[in-house]
User: Fold this.
Amino acid sequence: EIGMTQSPATLSVSPGERATLSCRASQSVGNKLAWYQRKPGQPPRLLIYGVSTRATGIPARFSGSGSGTDFILTISSLESEDFAVYYCQQYSHYYTFGQGTKLEIK
Amino acid sequence: QVQLVESGGDMVQPGTSLRLSCVASGITFSTSVFHWVRQAPGKGLEWVAVMSTDGSYKGYADSVKGQFTISRDNSKNTLYLQMSSLRAEDTALYYCAKEKAPHDAFDLWGPGTLVTVSS
Assistant:
């Protein structure tokens, strides 16, 4: 099983600032890496797939980068609705999610 | 309206069985790959099972292999998860999710159905 490790567990950032979330795979997943946003009471929402492609309707302030085992989700200028939990997921070999990063208001 | 809606969640005793359903609307069900994903209280997302479009392929997480069975009825636009010998650690919110394309991320999720296993 491919393990996914996200860091930090909690990130405190002020609105308008940049947020950088990390995800590391225990072995290469190629470009089979996605990011999801989850808000309380809602199902996960696909943000990014294929490492860096934004899903339909996702604002340009969300961007993904990385390759192989190390990946980054960047939110360029945080808005109030961006404070949520973010999960990375590999779908290279079966499917594994990271444990999540909670993005909270500083 | 494009949506997935799960049902069948309940509070049950350990050792019992339960079947979850997920009805799809607004999409071409028969050409989509579907998954079950769960989230236990206070924990992260855990992938549970996958089924191919025609049912010829099924995959399971090690934690549920031999205990859960995924199936689908393309004539009813419905995905199922048969859960048996339920344990306290199976307590979770269960989501069904659709793959965006074969071997791709999950672009459509249902609101989830809650399964609680407790004596």
